Amino acid sequence: MGKPRVNIRISTKLYAQLCEAADRPGAxxxxxxxxxxxxxxxxxxxxxxxxxxxxxxDAFDRRQAEIERDVxxxxxxxxxxxxxxxxxxxxxxEGDRDIAHALGQKRFDHFIGQVARKIGGRDTRDIDR
Length: 129
Fold this sequence. Notes:
Structural class: mainly alpha
Number of strands: 0
Mean pLDDT: 88
Distance between the termini: 73 Å
Strand content: under 5%
Largest sheet: none
Radius of gyration: 32 Å
Order of helices and strands: HHHH
Number of domains: 2
């Protein structure tokens, strides 16, 4: 006894994809549909795909947590440095404040320009160079 014949209706787009795949050497519409149904009804095949996806998501989650931890360390280090700098720096005398402000603005603009050149149009992983 041969295989049972099944008549089904599928979307035009799916049918076009099925025909395109069946045009490849060694492939038939029957084999493609049988493989798809076998994968649909085989819970192990589905669980393997789910396990692979979950492993990738878990790895992504671990990397994301490491990045968040590193950023938190960076912010905390910067905060401590600023606090230390503010407590150790002598106040500027009243008469020198305008000159110091102008010099500080010039230095800040230079600093921002350097950061912009490092980041602009380049991979941000190259910042440390």
